[in-house]
Fold Phospholipid/cholesterol/gamma-HCH transport system substrate-binding protein.
Amino acid sequence: MRIKPVRERNPVAVAVVGLVVLALIGLGAYRVDSLPFTGGGTTYSADFTESAGLSEGDEVRVAGVKVGEVTGVSLDGPKVKVSFKVKDVWIGNSSTVGIAIKTLLGEKYLAVDPLGNAPQDPHERIRASRTTSPYDVTQAFNGLGETIGEIDTEQLAKSFETISATFKDSPPDVKSAADGLSALSKTVSERDAQLATLLKGSKQLTKTLANKKSSFETLLEDGNLLLGEIQARRDSIHLLLTGTKNLGTQLTGLVQDNNKQLGPTLDSLGRVTAVLVKNRKSLDKVLSLAGSYSRLVGNTLGSGRWFDNYVCGVVPKEYVPAGTPAGPECKPPKQQGGR
């Protein structure tokens, strides 16, 4: 059977089939985690009394190890339904699930404690009796601040004073307790403004930390990168220090090997230096005379390719013929100019 080439087929049908295939490939890439071979995992659900800030995409951990992520948080009547997917981990029919605090900035994760003698049915929701939510300190402070702000502290103090007066004839233990409550009410009344300011500041600090969460994360990530780079360069630094140590060892050996030759040489050099120092005046005199000598030699040879000299007293006086007029006294000429 002959297969019809693509170029002979209807181009509209080929284009439609190609678009459908591309759409299926894109959908498969987007839902790769849900595919049976490339993704996978089992999805469970649990009931919570409150979400406690848990959101979709948060981690799911077993014994501190990430095994999945939260896939959904929704309200289901008076309870909160939390769906999560895990992979390659066993969840028992008595497993407990809790929302735990991940960081000081309020991030959460889902902690699973796999218990039970049979696997948990994925279609059966984990009851609220097997789930727990964290105690949110931030919300507690905010609620405390709002509650204290609504309390009439003066009326509260009067109420405690009335109670104390009512129990004044009671046994000593009851009277002491009432007096203590009265003193407590007065203290709260006097410190009302300070408590309000403190709680207001705590609320502002919480908001600031929440707004700066990305900056803290960036700082921690940069510190992690720095430590990783130092660790990566550890071998190079180790080789540098080792090479420096070996160089010092080689130089020490070189000095020790040549110590017998360098010692006599340095001693001889010291003796020569001592002789030169001892004859310093003579050397200064020789150098000064050498300067004049060099100047005369330069004058002699500086006129051209001949010697410019003055010869006096070559013929003795007794050999001079009689009657020869006496010349001037034999003295060397005076130096003039450059000659």
